[in-house]
Amino acid sequence: MAKKREFFIVDDDRIFIKFLTKYLQSDTSVVAHTISSAKALNEILARKPDCVILDIMMPEIDGLALCKKLRAEASLDDTKIIILSGKTYEFDRKQALSLGADGYITKPVDPDTITAQIERIMADRIEMTFWGVRGTLPVPGAMAIHYGGNTSCVSLAFPKGSLFIFDAGTGIKVLSGHLLRTSQSILEAKIFLSHPHWDHINGLPFFAPLYMQGNEFEIFGPSHGDVSVRELVAGQMDGVYFPIKIKEFGATVSFHDLQEESLEVDGVKMKTILLNHPGHCLGYRVEYKSRSICYVTDNELFPKDSRFYNESYVAKLVQFVQGSDALVTDCTYRDEEYAEKVGWGHSAVGQVVDLADQARVKQLFLYHHDPDQSDQEIEAKLTTAKDLLSRRQAPTKCFAPQEKQVFRL
């Protein structure tokens, strides 16, 4: 019989312990607890639970000090530590993570999501959510019911609480509503822009958390010559095109100009690559522990029989996405459509499949669909991609994500 997973709760609130136990106790899990943080260390060392859940504000020993003591014990290296506290300040979250906590959840908790939050931290998974999958223009109406009609936006939520947002098309407005409904604390996030074409930035002025004091955002992206990322974002909000100017952001917002480079953000390693698209356009590779996710949108892969085919660029891109667990990439056209769209800066199904196969990508996500394509035409692209991969006997799994669809990596 398999050993039951064990949780150990340290909290001086008996009512909360009872509440949390109700959601964690199951046929496969047991829950132990104590209201004495002074006694907790010895009990945890004796039991060696799979997960310890700590409050911060407790008499005797506060949760952060206890977390530090637990992380100093080699016998508890495999034990996950989650801080579950009423303190909503970013300072406390960062301090908890620096002391060895695996996750930070704020009270009051949502009964509908608390179990999933704890499970995600224990599994150490990245949660990738698609908020907009179209390119060029948002598409309202019956033709876009299944996949959604919003333009580019994808988020990565990491177990320790970091939130990375890729592109700010109209999909970021959907993300904005989600964050306002679910965030119970000050919000901090990183926004990575691929490039400043409208369908990748025109949702940013409608991202409500930017106007809320106490929130903090860093916006990264490629500058264009002597025009910085800050100037590019501010340009669409200069009063002529939008009635609210960038200076009216209530949150703390900083900007970072990127080129092809390697960087580290919130302890996550990243790389960028310049893509084959009009103007400066960046692709991103995110590396977290043993996993990698590549976001490569707005990129034209010319077929090998084209006079524009660049073998060295393709080899460089293959190396960039090599072995990634997830490749989110431009698949704007069906192969038969592409002949009329050469030089527009976007790719077709066959080219994308070839890239994924060469690079031995584990999962391929078809993205940035042409606004004239219906749900049925996107489904046809997916079918074609799967058939091509099957003929190659490639192990790559292929998806056409829907708006609001979540994948865990």
Task: Describe what you observe in this structure.
The protein is built from 12 helices and 19 strands. The protein has 409 residues and is of the alpha/beta class. The chain folds into 2 domains: 5-123, Response regulator (Rossmann fold); 127-408, Metallo-beta-lactamase, Chain A (4-Layer Sandwich), CATH 3.60.15.10. The strands form 3 sheets. The protein has a 7-stranded mixed β-sheet with strand order 11-10-9-8-7-6-19. A 7-stranded mixed β-sheet has the order 12-13-14-15-16-17-18, with helices on one face. Helix 2 packs parallel to helix 3 (63-71) and helix 11 (349-358) packs across helix 12.
Structural features:
7-stranded mixed sheet, 2 domains, Metallo-beta-lactamase, Chain A, 19 strands, 409 residues, alpha/beta, Rossmann fold, globular
| The CATH topology of the largest domain | Metallo-beta-lactamase, Chain A
Strand order of the largest sheet: 11-10-9-8-7-6-19
| CATH superfamily annotation of the largest domain | Ribonuclease Z/Hydroxyacylglutathione hydrolase-like
Rough outline: globular
Total strands: the figure is: 19
Number of helices: 12
Please indicate the percent range of residues in DSSP E strands (runs of 2 or more): 15-25%
Poorly predicted residue ranges: none
What gap, in angstroms, lies between the N and C termini? 29 Å
CATH architecture of the largest domain: 4-Layer Sandwich
Residue share in helix: 25-40%
